[in-house]
From TrEMBL:
Pfam families: Methyltransf_12 (PF08242). The lineage of its organism: Bacteria, Bacillati, Actinomycetota, Actinomycetes, Mycobacteriales. It comes from Nocardia farcinica. GO terms for biological process: methylation. This is Methyltransferase domain. Residues 55-155 form the Methyltransferase type domain.
Length: 222
């Protein structure tokens, strides 16, 4: 129960007011100057891996999906514990050639049947460092997502592990976000992330850009 409460606390800051400035504060400023990983690096993952049937876990403001090169006639399912990012991103994707569905759920629980299965791609960008617990606990998210990924699909994402940030801006943000419960990455390390991924997928790749760890995973274990 404590873990679920922490997950809700981490999701609470995503209010309409915060989502209105998310692109400027997170995408344009924090990614580049605090974490030393420009948003274009993560956007490249979307352009390389996103499939026609896509599940987006924790869509934030929807900037990545709005700027990604979506396949024609895509079907995009958005999943988040907080309904505000779901509504915000859905509105943002209006007019694009994709069918958008929303599911209010936590990735710490099994993916609801209403979300569907057989996704060509799953994106989980800047979500893991918000989830409570170490990777022995939050790693269950990968097991849940492996259940709904197509056999030839790809899961991709990024996270901020518990390393001392290379910038003062990053160190200040980490301290503030940890204090208010938005960051829960005190026990997150590279080995734990890799172990959690490999427990759910047979093929895993990790890389680092600045303070951000990027990952891809294929061949789900079921």
């Amino acid at each position: 129960m404590a873990g679920k409460d922490a997950a809700r606390i981490a999701a609470e800051p995503y209010t309409p007011a915060f989502l209105a400035v998310y692109d400027l504060w997170v995408i344009k400023l924090s990614d580049r100057f605090a974490w030393q990983c420009p948003a274009e690096v993560m956007l490249d993952q979307y352009n390389r891996f996103i499939g026609r049937k896509h599940l987006e876990v924790g869509p934030g403001s929807g900037w990545y999906l709005a700027n990604a090169e979506l396949p024609p006639e895509s079907a995009v399912t958005l999943m988040d514990l907080n309904p505000e990012p779901l509504a915000h991103t859905r509105r943002r994707l209006e007019g694009r050639s994709c069918d958008v569905r929303t599911v209010a759920a936590s990735v710490l629980d099994p993916v609801p049947e209403s979300a569907g299965v057989g996704f060509d791609s799953i994106g989980i960008n800047f979500v893991l460092h918000c989830l409570p617990g170490d990777f022995g606990e939050k790693g269950v998210a990968f097991a849940h997502l492996a259940q709904v990924l197509a056999d030839d699909g790809v899961l991709f994402g990024s996270t901020i592990l518990n390393r001392k940030s290379s910038t003062l801006f990053g160190r200040v943000l980490t301290a503030i976000y940890t204090e208010v419960g938005a960051f829960n990455n005190a026990a997150d390390d590279h080995a734990g992330l890799e172990t959690a991924l490999r427990s759910a997928f047979a093929e895993v790749n990790l890389s680092e850009v600045g303070d951000v760890t990027l990952f891809t995973a294929r061949k789900p274990r079921r």
